[in-house]
From TrEMBL, chain A:
Taxonomy of the source species: Eukaryota, Viridiplantae, Streptophyta, Embryophyta, Bryophyta
Organism field: Sphagnum troendelagicum
Domain of life assignment: Eukaryota
InterPro entries per record: DNA-dir_RNA_pol_30-40kDasu_CS, DNA-dir_RNA_pol_insert, DNA-dir_RNA_pol_RpoA/D/Rpb3, RBP11-like, RNAP_Rpo3/Rpb3/RPAC1, RNApol_insert_sf, Rpo3/RPB3_RNA_Pol_subunit
Protein name: DNA-directed RNA polymerase RpoA/D/Rpb3-type domain-containing protein
Keyword Transmembrane included in the entry's annotation: no
Automatic annotation (TrEMBL), chain B:
Segments forming a coiled coil: 84-111
DNA-directed RNA polymerase RBP11-like dimerisation domain residues: 30-102
Keywords tagged on the record: Coiled coil, DNA-directed RNA polymerase, Nucleus, Transcription
Superkingdom field: Eukaryota
Annotated organism of origin: Sphagnum troendelagicum
Family the entry assigns: Belongs to the archaeal Rpo11/eukaryotic RPB11/RPC19 RNA polymerase subunit family.
Pfam families registered for this protein in UniProt: RNA_pol_L_2
CDD domains per UniProt: RNAP_II_RPB11 (cd06926)
PANTHER family: DNA-DIRECTED RNA POLYMERASE I,II,III, DNA-DIRECTED RNA POLYMERASE II SUBUNIT RPB11
Residue spans crossing the bilayer: none
Protein name: DNA-directed RNA polymerase RBP11-like dimerisation domain-containing protein
Length: 324, 117
């Protein structure tokens, strides 16, 4: 039986972690894995979003499908999304939205009665499940003064004049970004290669102190530093290097080409993951790993593929030492 | 008017197999695997992992047409192994690598929380 493994052993170091932004370093793995995780975070991590809207009354200035489109784009807190079933896979219901396994129901019922324009926001959406609410309305304190600063007013859906009314029922379902961008939990997901900087020490020695200082300062970002005590040029922050090659051009201008060599390390990546708030950034990454694992599992060959094939079946049996 | 539904990109229709394979008639120890409804996300990962296997002589993937939602992986191995073994081994190794990554990430997260408090 084969017991070789060509597995890699990736390492992670988290630099900064907040609820919606996360910056971390991923090392000792291939660019294809980093890219696959990036693609999955953007397009295949499931979330919840409004998918079906039944409008009872709409006398606003926006037409029905316009409102339905805007409602779909509202991000909903989707911690439950991984466990929920996709609506088309759900056999417990007939898709009308009263099923707890695959859908969440929302109601919106507003009428403008005052002379002032009424802003209909995501705060006016009432959910049937208290865990699934529009992002940034959770944790909102009851307002006493009647005036909310812009960041707390919720996402604006439509504005109503006196006499205009909006009454609808919306159903949120699980989906992935590949189907429609409303289901994408990612604001941006990026990764960059970590730079590998080598200073040619013998060439560096041939520079005077002033030349060294001038060269260090030619970089737009602070990558190098002139150590005052030892009077050596040291690399202080390699990742601040933006691949602008200013230092290389300066070295050539000073008549010392090859003073520094900068390459990007092929197996070291710095990820920046920013979420819309539907899922926490760290949870998004973990979900992406799980989804990549399940995709690979789905793509695996069935056990009997080898035995069924005469040429390889025999070879396999021979390799296994005469079959078990 | 003729556009297929978006879910066609990732939903395998009834009766269609997710992975099908075909031995190459002209070359020894070579096979072509057709994976339905997958794209570069999975294809590139499997291909790069296959490159790490010394018994794999050739490994490549392509998406024959952007409007046909399938992917084709072609593998040729030495006689020490077979394309199917190489393919399954690549997937097994990738799964182990992802398990390792997840554990490392969760450990790092726990440590960050511990440092915070």
């Amino acid at each position: 039986m084969e017991n070789v493994s060509y597995q890699r052993f990736p390492t992670v170091r988290i630099r900064d972690m907040k609820d919606d932004v996360m910056k971390f370093e991923l090392r000792d793995t291939d660019a294809s894995v980093a890219n696959a995780l990036r693609r999955i975070m953007i397009a295949e991590v499931p979330t919840l979003a409004i998918d079906l809207v039944e409008i009872e009354t709409n006398s606003s200035v926006l037409n029905d499908e316009f409102l339905a489109h805007r409602l779909g784009l509202i991000p909903l807190i989707s911690d439950r999304a991984m466990e929920m079933r996709l609506s088309r896979d759900c056999d417990a219901c007939d898709g009308d939205g009263r099923c707890d396994f695959c859908s969440i129901e929302f109601h919106l019922n507003v009428k403008c009665t005052s002379e002032q324009t009424l802003d209909v926001t995501s705060h006016d959406l009432q959910s049937s499940d208290p865990d699934v609410v529009p992002v940034d309305s959770a944790g909102r304190q009851a307002d006493v003064s009647g005036f909310d600063p812009p960041e707390h007013r919720g996402i604006l859906i439509v504005k109503l004049r006196k006499g205009q009314e909006l009454k609808l029922r919306a159903i949120a379902r699980k989906g992935i970004g590949k189907d429609h961008a409303k289901w994408s939990p990612a604001a941006t997901v990026t990764f960059q290669y970590e730079p590998d900087i080598h200073i040619n020490e013998t060439l560096m020695e041939s520079l005077s102190l002033d030349e060294k200082r001038e060269w260090v300062e030619s970089s737009p970002t602070k990558v190098f530093e002139l150590d005052p005590i030892s009077q050596q040029v040291v690399v202080v922050d390699p990742e601040a290097y933006t691949y602008d090659e200013e230092v290389i051009k300066k070295a050539e201008a000073m008549g010392k080409p090859g003073l520094v060599e900068i390459y990007s390390k092929e197996d070291s990546f710095i990820f920046t993951v920013e979420s819309t708030g539907a899922i926490k950034a760290s949870q998004m990454f973990i979900n992406a790993i799980e989804i990549l694992k399940s995709k690979l599992d789905a793509v695996r060959l069935a056990f009997d593929t080898e035995e069924a094939d005469d040429q390889f079946g025999e070879l396999g049996a021979h390799m296994r030492g005469g079959g078990m | 008017m003729n556009a297929p539904d978006r879910y066609e990109r990732f939903v395998v229709p009834e009766g269609m197999k997710k992975v099908a394979y075909e031995r190459d008639m002209k070359i020894m120890n070579a096979a072509t695997f057709t994976v339905q409804r997958e794209d570069h996300t999975v294809g590139n990962v499997i291909r790069m992992q296959l490159h790490r296997d010394p018994s794999v002589l050739f490994a490549g993937y392509k998406l024959p047409h952007p409007l046909q939602y399938k992917m084709v992986v072609k593998i040729q191995t030495t006689s020490q192994s077979s394309p199917m073994q190489a393919y399954n081994l690549a997937i097994t190794d990738l799964t182990k690598e992802l398990d390792h990554l997840k554990a490392a990430f969760e450990q790092e997260m726990a440590q960050k929380q511990a440092d915070y408090y």
